[in-house]
Amino acid sequence: MTYVYEKLDVWQKAMHFSGKILDTASACANTDGYQQVIQNLGAKSAQIAGAIAAGKSYRAKHDFAEHLYQSRGALYETMTMLELLKQKQILSEEKFVEFDASANQIVAMLTNLVKSIYKPQNNQAPIEN
Predict the structure, then answer these.
(1) 62, burial (CB in 10 Å: exposed 0-12, middle 13-18, buried 19+)
(2) Within 13 Å and on the Cβ side, how many CA atoms surround 77?
(3) Region of residue 23 (phi > 0: left; psi between -120 and 50: alpha; otherwise: beta)
(4) Phi, psi for residue 3 in degrees, rounded to 5
(5) Exposed site from 66, 82, 96, 120, fewest CB < 10 Å?
(6) How far apart are CA 100 and CA 96, in angstroms?
(7) pLDDT one digit per residue (tens) for the chain, 129 residues
(8) Exposure string for 35-52, b = 16+ CB within 10 A, e = fewer
């Protein structure tokens, strides 16, 4: 069975990103003093795609958009933890740059998806508050 969220390019990209994060977290798992950060890294990265999938289950566009924002927040938290691991020289600069490039693509995709949700339909004026 194919779920509707699986068709979203941003979900597919987030899944790939999270998979790479989990591989990295697994490789760093025995790093003394940073096990909690590494565990949180894996969990938070899984929330990136998870929030997209959960949001797609709602009928209201606003609810979907809210979950896209949650996904972006999880991505920012993931990047913060990766930055910490880079600063502590647990994660290489090269690996961080790779993650950063993917994260920037995902952020752009999430932002564009949110914009498309709130974009006025053809021939309809935007609602003014």
Answers:
(1) exposed
(2) 19
(3) alpha
(4) -90, 150
(5) 120
(6) 6
(7) 889 999 999 999 999 999 999 999 888 877 778 888 888 999 999 999 999 999 999 999 999 999 999 999 999 999 999 999 999 999 999 999 999 999 999 999 999 999 999 887 765 555 554
(8) eebbeebbebbbbbbbbb
Residues in the chain: 129
Give CA–CA dist 34/47, Å, rounded.
Answer: 20
Q: Which is nearest to 18 in space by CA: 35, 42, 1?
A: 42
Alpha-carbon gap, residue 2 to 43, rounded angstroms? 24
CATH topology of domain 7-116: de novo design (two linked rop proteins) (1.20.1440)
Residue where the block lists tokens 């003394």: 32
The CA distance from 84 to 125, in Å, is: 46
Rounded to whole angstroms, how far apart are CA atoms 120 and 125? 7
The pTM of the full predicted model, rounded to 2 decimals, is 0.88
Q: Element (H or E) spanning 33, and its range? A: none
